[in-house]
Amino acid sequence: MQIEWLILLLPLAAASGWFAASRAARKESAKSEREANPVYFQGLNYLLNEEPDKAIDVFLEMLEVDADTIETHLALGNLFRRRGEVERAIRIHQNLIARPALSREQRAQAVLELAQDYMRSGLYDRAEQLLLELKQGRQYVVPVLRNLVKIYQQEKDWDACLKTIEALDIESGETHDLQKSHYFCEMANKARADGDNEVARIYLKRALNVYKGCVRATHLLARIDIQENKRKDALVKLLDAAERAPEYLPEIIREIVDIYRSEGDMRGVRTFLEDQVKRHPNQGTELFLAEIIRQQSGDAEATRFLGEYIAKNPSMPGLIRLVELQCTMPSMGNDHLLYNVRAHLHRLMAERINYQCQKCGFEAKQLHWQCPSCDSWSTIKRRSLIEADNQIKTVKEVL
Prior knowledge:
This protein is mainly α and 399 residues long.
């Protein structure tokens, strides 16, 4: 702990010592300089005695805020915030803002930093107030808008998110169409929860107008169709989503198969699954196809299909299902070894991480449209060769 604080405060201590020494050199003799430095050594003493708060106060008192030291204060505040020492970062930035010597630009920079301190602390109201102040003064507009978007996302104020990100588009010259489509999807989910499917449809159509490739909006529209017994309409949407975004197939395959089954179109679903198995291996379709083969041709044929399939496309879910089918074969009898293998495989599968953010590496066991770690949208994808741990269970439930 002592070494960490020495490393952390060494730049501030050095800068403080230099500032005190240079100021003393301009005003007094060498003797007077030595007499001016006891405060500096007092700060070092606090640091060595593991009293960092007192050391910070001493060093900041020595390091007067002016044009030459403002960057040192800001850098130190940023360092504390990155280390999670948010209270200390707040103290430093508040101290800066209170100094009358700051220029308008310097004060704005300190206010922006303080707003980010508050955001890190979860004090979103205070952060928003500071950011709106900067926005009104047309200072640091782009970073201000970016931070406001983060606040409104945390507060799930999707309307404010849309308005703010549209302003960000204008100020930055960038486009955030994918992000906007997710905001509309969030608003649609809220409308659905309130029992208003018509309003939800309006939001989802806006999502697709903003970003045509929004499979989330297509999927939600299909779910509304299913809820309203418009299964054929839903199937068209789901097949379109599967075609445009094959990586999303594991999330919708159950609903596709369920609609085919409810319509009695087993030939249609088998044709669809056979096509998907060839085009997009290890997306879960092989498990549904194996179950249909089992129902139509028996366990032995399903076992043969899966055995040949996983020999070319190895996957844990496929292997588990193959072992399960082997356990049902009359020739196996009471093969305790095979049953134990199946149990072990299920445990291994339960421990697997199915999803990962392609931007920051965050791992999850379920799909998140917005990464909980880096706040990016649509960056969490299903890992290749890994299926959801409940995929096998849902096959039997559907078929």
